[in-house]
UniProtKB/TrEMBL annotation:
Cross-referenced Pfam families: Glyco_hydro_1
Source taxon at top rank: Bacteria
Protein name listed in UniProt: Glycoside hydrolase family 1 protein
SUPFAM superfamilies membership: (Trans)glycosidases
Length: 402
């Protein structure tokens, strides 16, 4: 086994809306109430109650031997109304981060993970001409309160996934379909917003990035150039273009890697051209994403070759309600990261999605991504076997770390 560096970040990732519960001032809460928007009809309501029971979850993370956790801040909690700021909410986040540090968990803090305050969404959200100013006011407040405790900042999570679901398929708020023009306008704005936020967050102790969604794409297409073109389209839900545009303002690259895509593109059907399920169902997760550990190596290699920056795996995981594949999935992906490190590709952390089952957006509570199982009837958390197996793996690697 190739030793991982001693300071390698071993952990998990969650987001505020999916886990905290009761985020009633967010656009998603309203979206969930409309029948048909959530596939299984569930609502986030108290989600995992992370807001109140965070110590229980942090204890499990610590017991498993993790030394890092990625969380996010809910803008709507900090600014529930346009003219109302909640110092109380900010202080609560400070407490959560303090509790993480007490347990030796390095915080990786995301400022925007898909959800918007309702007041902002009602004013056209990112399309609002003051969007940048509004978001940066929020970023400044968060930074002022949390700056002493946080080294790693992620400004935006998977902008292209948001644009794809919100403006192309319409399956997420604001529910627009084929609004390609708006998607491109927002992408360009988010690029500017990331750059401006970077300069607020950047100091000699901080490292700032975005979390980019990138799959491992291989082409079954005879048109190789189409594959290349697809990388640049925000509708595909991949963030290559975002990274190209923001690379100077990324101290490292946050990589969310989930699956393999076979591209069967042709000029007429670029959007219907990607398959992410394998013919053999045993090679897919519960929601049909093809499990492909080699991809984490391939994508990291390509990222390093392109941008020459350290890479943090900010998400990687699978829906697996029976917990049959998760432990092996982690071992296989970590093995591929070890291979990357061996080849001098500087991967600095692995954050598994997710610490616990949570509200999986338009798919509701059915997909089970957690190392910890949530019993939503009793609102109790039950560690799965894979949590402890991940812990065993972490300890093995930590013991031989250089
Ligand atoms: C990623 C999202 C995360 C979660 C996982 C399964 O695209 O960032 O919130 O939904 O997928």
């Amino acid at each position: 086994m190739k030793p991982f560096p001693k300071n390698f970040l071993w952990g998990a990732a969650i987001s505020s809306y999916q886990t905290e519960g009761n985020n009633f001032a967010s656009d998603w809460w309203q979206w969930e109430q409309q029948p048909g928007n959530i596939k299984d009809g569930s609502v986030s309501s108290s989600a995992c109650d992370f807001w109140n029971q965070y110590e229980t979850y942090l204890d499990y993370a610590k017991q498993a031997g993790m030394n890092a956790l990625r969380i996010s801040i809910e803008w709507a909690r900090i600014q529930p109304e346009q003219n109302q700021w909640s110092q109380q909410a900010l202080d609560h986040y400070k407490k959560i981060i303090g509790a993480m540090k007490q347990r030796g968990l390095e915080p990786i803090v995301t400022l925007w993970h898909f959800t918007l305050p309702l007041w902002f969404a009602k004013q056209n959200g990112w399309l609002n001409e003051n969007a940048q100013e509004y978001f940066l006011q929020y970023v400044k407040r968060v930074y002022e309160t949390l700056k002493n405790g946080v080294r790693y900042w992620i400004t935006l999570n998977e902008p292209s996934v948001y644009l794809f679901n919100g403006f192309i398929t319409g399956s997420w708020p604001p529910g627009k379909k084929l609004a390609l023009h708006q998607a491109v306008r927002i992408r360009n704005k988010l690029i500017r917003i990331h750059k401006a936020a970077y300069h607020i967050l950047k100091n000699q102790n901080t490292l700032v990035s975005i979390a980019a969604n990138l799959s491992w794409d291989t082409g079954a297409s005879q048109y190789k150039n189409i594959n290349r073109l697809l990388e640049w389209l925000p509708p595909r839900g991949n963030d290559w273009a975002m990274l190209h545009a923001t690379q100077r303002e990324c101290d490292f690259i946050g990589l969310n890697y989930y699956f393999h895509n076979t591209i069967r593109a042709n000029v007429l059907h670029p959007f219907a051209s990607v398959t992410s399920s394998h013919k053999d169902p045993s090679r897919n997760s519960d929601i049909g994403w093809e499990i492909a550990p080699q991809g984490i190596y391939e994508v990291s290699k390509k990222l390093y070759k392109t941008f020459h920056k350290p890479i943090m795996i900010t998400e990687n995981g699978l829906a697996d309600a029976k917990d049959e594949k998760r432990a092996q999935f982690i071992r296989d992906h970590v093995k591929n990261i070890a291979q990357a490190i061996e080849k001098n590709i500087p991967v600095i952390g692995y954050l598994h999605w997710s610490l616990m089952d949570n509200f999986e957006w338009a798919l509701g509570k059915t997909p089970r991504f957690g190392l910890i199982e949530m019993d939503y009837n009793t609102m109790t958390a039950h560690p799965r076997q894979s949590l402890w197996e991940y812990g065993t793996l972490i300890r093995q690697y930590i013991n031989i770390a250089s």
